[in-house]
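Revision sheet: structure tokens.
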Amino acid sequence: MGGGIEPYVKRYVEETHAALSDPYLAESVARIVPVLLKAREEGRTIYFFGNGGSASTASHFVCDIGKATIQGDRRRFKCVALVDSVESLTAWANDTDYSRVFSEQLATLAVRGDVAFGISGSGNSPNVLRAMEIAHQKGLATIGLTGMGGGKLRGLSEIPVVVPSNSMQHIEDVHLLICHLLTAYLRDEVPAPPSAG
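Predicted:
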């Protein structure tokens, strides 16, 4: 990988740009937005989860969508990052199996009509897949952010968003951009409901 820093940076940026230059991005956002809006209007909870960098993205998105989209007296988004409950994560991982750290939380907290938002760069994280299976059993809407062809998460998501890349760095870059894009759209572009009168 010789050539110095500047060519490496240029190549990295070009590869990331290539992962963004595909119609799937706008198409995915167009499918996700109505699901999130419906959840908000019905007072449903959106559950985010993932491992490693995807855990960080899940937690980041909950912060962003929960705070940055507030507009006046309009109903707020109810969001939970299952990755943030250290006690539950470690208890389930220690006492049973790490593949159950998200599914068991969903089994306890989620109700029909809620939304499961799973994030896995490979699409094959066992705990994300297990959570999506529970989500289907409980009647949740399912959204999956993935890459590398989609893995098994693709088939378990009603709305799969598959970044066209096999690089975990580029996949995670795009996942975070999608979360920021959704937050910005919900903040800037969605008209407030008409006032009663």
